[in-house]
Specification:
By secondary structure, this protein is mainly alpha-helical. The chain is 69% helix and 2% strand.
């Protein structure tokens, strides 16, 4: 039997070194499921690292949580899923705190919550409730607190002189390396998102996209027939003018 302390330390190290790659999240998720008999202890590691790490790393852990819950659900180990369902509000508060320090992570939280809902891990009502809280926290433009450049250089210099603790509006300001890392990781995630949009089906579930679009289309009403008739009349008039 593996030493619980060693398992915890290795899992903690993996969480601390997560990045934007899928392999990084999957590796940590596989490790957690390998030692599923220590699931409660590993779950506490996740919550602990969400409180201790930078906002960049908290975003990476948020994406990891989606991978972990998805894999745990497929392997029928519901303890990880159940504990995450119970503590999801605590997770959101850590990744996108109410003080605005994690405003750049609000979109991350939304994406993961939508993914968890689509996988049946979170109830729609739960996601709606959390979304109500996120609206109040989405008050800063994306990466505003991560931006290394102020609109006015003199203003930045004055702030540095009057604010030696390197804080903006009471929030710790990331260093240049963290800013560059976050930009690069967001670029990698957006690239993967575009790739997934254009992914070719496997031939088995090719109708899923059609069914989804069909469900999103509203029923044909009287206004649609009137608009079609007007378009047809305009086309006839245009052809007659040629």
């Amino acid at each position: 039997m593996a030493d619980p302390f060693e398992v915890r330390m290795r899992f903690t190290s993996q969480l601390q070194h997560l990045n934007a790659s899928v392999n990084s999240s999957q590796k940590a998720a596989h490790y957690a499921l390998k030692y599923r008999d220590m699931d409660e202890d590993l779950h506490s590691c996740i919550l602990e690292q969400l409180e201790r790490n930078s906002m960049n790393n908290r975003a990476n852990i948020m994406y990891f949580i989606e991978h972990l819950c998805d894999m745990a659900q497929r392997e029928n180990h519901t303890n990880f899923v159940r504990m995450m369902q119970k503590d999801i509000l605590m997770v959101v508060d850590a990744v996108a705190p109410s003080d605005g320090s994690g405003a750049a992570n609000v979109k991350v939280v939304r994406r993961v919550l939508q993914g968890l809902q689509q996988k049946g891990i979170l109830l729609p009502d739960t996601v709606v409730e959390i979304e109500g809280c996120l609206k109040e926290r989405d008050i800063v433009a994306e990466h505003a607190v991560l931006s290394p450049i102020e609109a006015n250089g003199q203003r930045e210099q004055a702030q540095n002189q009057t604010n030696p603790t390197n804080k903006i509006n009471g929030m710790s300001r990331p260093d240049k390396r963290q800013i560059e890392q976050r930009i690069e990781e967001d670029r990698e995630r957006h690239k993967r998102l575009r790739e997934s949009i254009w992914a070719v089906g496997d031939g088995v579930n090719d109708d899923q996209e059609f069914d989804r679009l069909w469900d999103e289309v509203s029923d044909i009403g009287e206004d649609d027939y009137i608009a079609a008739e007007e378009d047809a009349t305009e086309r006839r008039q245009a052809l007659g003018m040629v």
